[in-house]
Specification:
With about 110 residues, the protein is an alpha+beta fold. It has one domain (about 1-105). The protein is about 15% helix and about 45% strand. Strands 1-2-3-6-7 form a five-stranded mixed beta sheet. Strands 4-5-9-8 form a four-stranded antiparallel beta sheet. Strand 2 and strand 3 (about 15-25) form a beta hairpin. The longest helix has 9 residues, at about 40-45. The two termini are about 25 Å apart.
Length: about 110
């Protein structure tokens, strides 16, 4: 299992390009469960032709599927930037820009 900014993930190609993301736990805000996904993860997914994120919660050895998201478009990210739907975390490295985490409502899995 690979990681970007500490978030474990696996890519799966079975007709549709998916990226499985593993979260310790989602958070509850404004009446919905949400997750934060880093700009680096989103950009990497776009560059690699990933179309959807499948979201899992709990231990990576026995995760529970909690929902899905379409990989956000550049326009959606621009909207989130304009509406401040993100959080900047300080970088672990001196002189590096902060880590930008975008907030997403979880869409329940229907498959």
């Amino acid at each position: 299992m690979r990681k970007i900014w500490g978030l474990p993930y696996e890519d799966e190609y079975s007709g549709v390009s998916l990226r499985k993301l593993y979260f310790r736990r989602p958070f509850y805000q404004d009446g919905s469960y949400m997750v934060t996904i880093g700009s680096k993860m989103i950009g990497d997914a776009r560059r690699n032709g990933i179309q959807h994120f499948i979201l899992f919660s709990g231990d990576t050895n026995n995760p529970a599927e909690i929902g899905y998201l379409n990989v956000p478009s550049k326009e959606e990210i621009a909207r989130k930037d304009k509406e401040y739907e993100f959080e900047d975390k300080p970088s672990m490295f001196d002189g590096s820009p902060p880590m930008r985490l975008y907030k997403f409502k979880i869409k329940q899995t229907t498959r």
